[in-house]
Amino acid sequence: MATVAAEGGLLRRPLAKSGFSSWITTADHKRIGILYGYTAFFFFLIGGCEALLIRLQLARPNGTVLTANQYNTLFTMHGLTMIFLVVMPLSASLFNYMIPLMIGARDVAFPRLNAFSYWVFLSGGIFLYSSFVFGGAPNGGWFGYAPLTSLYSPGHGLTFYALGLQMLGIASIASAANFITTILNLRAPGMTLMRMPVFVWMTLVTSFLLLFAMPVIAVALFQLAFDRLWHSNFYNIAAGGDPLLWQHLFWIFGHPEVYILILPAMGVVSEILPVFSRKPLFGYSAVVFSGIFIGFMGWGVWAHHMFTVGLGPYANSAFAVSTMFIAVPTGVKIFNWTATLWRGSIRFRTPLLFAVGMVAMFVIGGLSGVTHSLVPSDYEQHDTYYIVAHFHYVLFGGAIFGLFAGFYYWFPKVTGKMMNERLGKIHFWWMLIAFNLTFFPMHMLGLQGQPRRTYIYPSNMGWGSYNMTETIGAFLIAGSMLVFIYNWVVSKRKGTIAGRDPWDARTLEWSIPSPPPEHNFDDIPHVHNRDDLWHRKYAEGPSGKPVPIPVGAAEEHDAGEDHAVGHIHMPSPSYWPVLAAFGLPVFAWSLIFHLYVGDALGLLMLFSGMYGWVFEPLAEPSGDHGVLEGAH
Ligand SMILES: [Cu+2]
């Protein structure tokens, strides 16, 4: 096998295990998870700066900080960034790093496809942001309604939108297929579906949503790109096109997208609450099935974004009812989380604070969401700041708080160090107060009629003081991020050593060293229970309280199980995914500027990347990693 690798010639696999080139070529799910995390956090800072500019403009009536077009560009890019370049990839960073560890696997099912997903995500992000230097960024809102975006937006901005989102969709579809395969096929022996951690379940549901939702918006985006680049008439009313086609396609993607953003955070919270209340998750199967139910129901509510379009009373009533209905499984989750905390022996560490914060803020956002399921009240709220308040409670109060809970929870696993608790708590309370200061007044402003996506408001409306409060709140949120960054950097260098299982946790990732070795598990674990690690550590005492099992006693039930000794095959690094991925933006830039040589170059990169990928040798080169001598 080793000789095949050595004779690979041009297709020889790269060897570097450290340094810059090892990061470019890595196929290790943990390193790809880290790449996703840092890249998405970088975009988080950019999207945050865009938000601060928006808030500066709105701080006072008749603001003069931005022009109307700059304002349009900034709210469009803020939305696109936070959804596609922050919340989705931050979730992806947790999927990547954690899923193989939580199911007892050595990597994902398709490691190079995983690398490809990351590089396509990065090139899509770079492509979208390159529009700022190539004649103006998208300015038609994140929802990009045609024909405004097809016929009436000159310049290249909306073409960057159509092609950039297409690339990000490719990354999402590839990683969805990867995680579905990984979760269904690579679970450790004994880990039945109903023994999987809830975070793994929510990743599975999210992946199915991605797999079915992204192709829908791909169709809409292809049509938009054709309308813009080659003057087709999909959305041209004068030529018989249909503008509502865009709205339907967009929201059939757009509503499941909301669950793509929130379900991973719900999964994180479902892991953290049991650990810090030292109780199993209350109603595990109810939480799992409500997640699956949300996944299905999410396809039947999209027209609640279109109540004011004029679909008629029957359609509006049907979608009002389905929208109210989808609050039920969400409520089931909230009751189960509360019941998990109930009478637990709670440790208020930073991850728990963020998890509880997520639940509380998400409840506010969920309830305001139910108010727009009522068609008459939606008519009043539509396109006002009330909606902006609602989705920031769901996406910031819900998703971002949940993701931060996950970062604090898993930081010790990834870095091997503990994060500073005091700074973590300061970050939590600071961010919670600043968040509410920023977004709560938007409810009032919205009900008073302040419209969304409008860059000025007159002084006689009496909206000035709420707006000023929101702007101050937004800068305070930015300040709380500095605490987080400082804590991250210092704890990573000087934090106390975490050990394998600092939280006395329940799931498999805490059974291996921190940070985990490249091959994750010396022996693939045999799973006997839900919360398997907990049951290896504790038995139930006479009063129902957990009693620690003496060290070594738990070894017994592993006797007779075979142990993998010797060579562990790990995926080798590869140059090809990154080459193929960067072919896409080269192709798209050239499409916009009609550079046929560039189009050919982009396609050449894509196809030679794929060719190399398929034909590079399977075996790792000789003298490589993964040889474990006599572990047992
Ligand atoms: Cu919706």
Quickly list its features.
18 helices, disordered N terminus, globular, mainly alpha, two-stranded antiparallel ribbon, 632 residues, 4 strands, 2% strand, binds copper (II) ion
Secondary structure category = mainly alpha
Quaternary status? single chain
SSE pattern:
HHHHHHHHHHHHHHHHEEEHHE
Give the CA-CA distance, first to last residue: 26 Å
Biggest β-sheet strands, sense, barrel: 2 strands, antiparallel
Strand order of the largest sheet: 1-2
What is the beta-strand fraction?
A: under 5%
The radius of gyration over CA amounts to 25 Å
Q: What topology does this entry show?
A:
Elements: H1 2-6, H2 20-25, H3 29-58, H4 68-102, H5 111-130, H6 157-185, H7 198-230, H8 243-277, H9 284-297, H10 313-341, H11 350-373, H12 375-381, H13 385-415, H14 421-447, H15 464-494, H16 532-537, E1 538-540, E2 546-548, E3 566-567, H17 576-592, H18 596-615, E4 627-628
Bound molecules: copper (II) ion.
Question: Can you give a write-up of this model?
Answer:
With 632 residues, the chain is an all-alpha fold. Helices cover 63% and strands 2% of the residues. The protein contains 18 helices and four strands. Helix 4 crosses helix 8 and helix 5 (111-130) packs antiparallel against helix 6. The protein starts with a helix and ends with a strand. The model is unreliable at 1-7, 555-561 and 621-632 (pLDDT under 50). The protein binds copper (II) ion. Copper (II) ion binds next to helix 8.
